[in-house]
Every structure is written in C-alpha cells, then in structure tokens.
Amino acid sequence: MKIAPARVQAFLGDPGSCRAVLLYGDDAGMIRERAEALVRVVAGSLDDPFLVTELAREDVRRLPDEAAGLSLMGGRRVIRVRDATDAAADAVALLLKSAAPALVVLEGGALPTRSKLRVLLDAAAEGATIGCYPEEGRALEETIRGTLRALGSGIAPDALSWLSQHLGADRLSTRGELEKLALYAGAGATIDLEAAMTCVGDLAGLSLDDALFAATTGDVATADRALELAMLEGAAAVQVLRVALGHLQKLHRARLAMDEQGMTAGDATRTVRPPVFYQKVGAFSRSLGLWPGATLVAAMAAMAEAERGCKRTGWPDEALARNAVLTLARRAAAAARPGRR
C-alpha cells in the first residue's frame, strides 16, 4: 500500500502488521532518517545485535531466511537493506508469501513508477511504500520551524524565508544546518536573518552562491570553478537548480522595479526581500544591467525544465545542472561585451 504524505508520521510511529517497507525518492537524507525511525520504533535501537540485521544489496536473496529468524532475547527483528533495487523484488515476494515475523526496511533510490519493487509493495496488504522527495514551500518552512522549535529556538519571518531558499535538498543536511544554527544563536533565541545568513551555507558552503553570482555577472571561469567545488562538497543537482531559480526570481522582481517604476539598479536591489547579502550587492546590481526582463523569464523557464529533467530516471542530473548554470554565465558574458546587450 502507498502511504499518503499525511499518514507518514503516524506510520513511522507504528508500522503495525506491515512486514516490508520501501523508502524511495530523491532525498537520500529523508530516506535514511525515516528508515532509522522505523528501526528504532520496532527494535528500540539502531545497533541491537539480536534485533537488527543489515543485509548488503548483493545478499538480498537471503532476505526470506533472515526475516524468518527469531531473536534469542525476544522482540521483533528488523532487517535493513540499503541501496535496494528491483533485484530485491523476487526475494521480497517470497517473504510476503511466508509467515516471517520480522519487519524488512528497504532503502531505495529514485525508483520509477513501474519499478517491480514499487509495484509489488504498492499492491501488498502487508507491504508499504513511502516516497521521500525534497521539501519545498510551506512543507519545508514547517520542517524548519518545527526543527528549530524542538531545539529551543524561534525564527523571524525573513530568516525563515531565506532558509527555505537555501535548505531542503537533503533532510539530514538540512537538520544538521539547523542544529548548527540553533547552537550559534543560543538557547531560547529567536533567529534573525543576519544569524541565518552568517551561520548557514547552501549545504555546500558559500561556493554555490559564488557560482550563481558569477554566472549572472558573466564570469564563466569563476562560475565553473565554484560550481565544481559546490558539487564536490555535496550540493545535489536539484538543489543547484532550485537555488539558481530562486536567484533568477530575485533578479526578475528587481528588474520589474526598474522597468515599471524607473528605479536604478541600486535602488531596485535594495527592494529585494530577503535582502541581498551585503557582500553580494554590487554583483547583484551589475547583473540587473545584463539581464532584460524577457531574458530572465526565458532563463527561469529553462532552469525549471532542467530541474524536471533531473527528476527523470536515467538523465545525467549533474551534467544538466552544470550546463544550465554555465549557460547563464555565457549569456551574461555575451551581454557584458562592449556594444552588446
């Protein structure tokens, strides 16, 4: 059965008679976090040698036998399989036909809708599938707010808006950044925008911001180097494209202020909310002179299409993200040449 998003938290707290759970999607951190929640709620801990067994992907054929085993100390056992693929489908089918009492937790990746494993567990009365995808919008804001509340911190609206544009590509990385931010702000503090911008990077340090500002000012070489560093340090392709789209949207709003209200680039930059980081104000203002409104609209559409491409199974997501950002850089570089616009 498919577990609807509204039911996920309740299911993680009590999987009931379910015997096999498949966690799949683009957010590897969320998959891991939810898998660990299931292991803890059933076995009591992640590393109890009597109740928790981890199977390597190549050993998945042993799954029915492992699941049939009983703990010498009592309690329900959990079998955890990381990097699960459709190669596990036959073993899971045998498991579901048996009376094995253990809970099997399968951690998959971005499995397609027609995946044998997904189809099998979607239809199984004692099976479950849970999609794990990067949060955005209100869902991400609520996760940020709730996580900080649990850590004893509040958050100002503009800081929440800024964080929602810079976090979310990976649940565990997001949680780690928020824990660091709460520690930085101190117990009981309300986190403001300055604290958020000072403490939290783009899950890959400042190099992703550097890449995007370099791209929209036409510095191709810097954009390429900074983007390479961001990806080496863990920036996911979808995250790169999502942050790039947010950057273009800010430019577009400021450009509209110039075109419709006659503002200068500097004045339009000061209207942006959340405000542009003070060290980037000059680059942002220069970008406005290189990007007419219609060109920004086309660039935003291309960025959104690249993000959709990253979510299609088998597409080279890192290549798509890199090409999208460097296309921006080349376009801005062309506009910056004397006599060009």
Write a short abstract of this structure.
The protein has 341 residues and is α/β, with parallel strands linked by helices.
Walk me through this protein's architecture.
- This protein has helices at 8-13, 28-43, 63-68, 89-97, 116-123, 137-150, 157-166, 171-185, 193-199, 207-217, 220-232, 237-261, 265-270, 281-288, 293-310, 317-336, and strands at residues 20-24, 52-55, 78-81, 103-107, 127-131, 154-155, 190-191.
- It is an alpha/beta fold and 341 residues long.
- The strands form two sheets. The protein has a five-stranded parallel β-sheet, with helices on both faces. Strands 6-7 form a two-stranded parallel ribbon.
- β3, α4 (89-97) and β4 form a beta-alpha-beta unit.
- Mean pLDDT is 87; it is low at 202-206.
Number of strands: 7
Distance separating the two termini: 55 Å
Structural class by sheet pairing and helices: alpha/beta
Which assembly state applies to the chains in this document? single chain
Strand order of the largest sheet: 2-3-4-1-5
Helix content: 55-70%
Radius of gyration: 23 Å
Low-confidence segments, ≥5 residues, pLDDT <50? 202-206
- Helix segment count? 16
Features:
two-stranded parallel sheet, 7 strands, alpha/beta, elongated, 16 helices, 341 residues, 5-stranded parallel sheet
What is this structure's SSE topology?
Layout: H1 8-13, E1 20-24, H2 28-43, E2 52-55, H3 63-68, E3 78-81, H4 89-97, E4 103-107, H5 116-123, E5 127-131, H6 137-150, E6 154-155, H7 157-166, H8 171-185, E7 190-191, H9 193-199, H10 207-217, H11 220-232, H12 237-261, H13 265-270, H14 281-288, H15 293-310, H16 317-336
Parallel strand pairs: 1-4, 1-5, 2-3, 3-4, 6-7
Helix pairs in contact: 6-7, 7-9, 10-11, 10-12, 10-14, 10-16, 11-16, 12-15, 12-16, 15-16
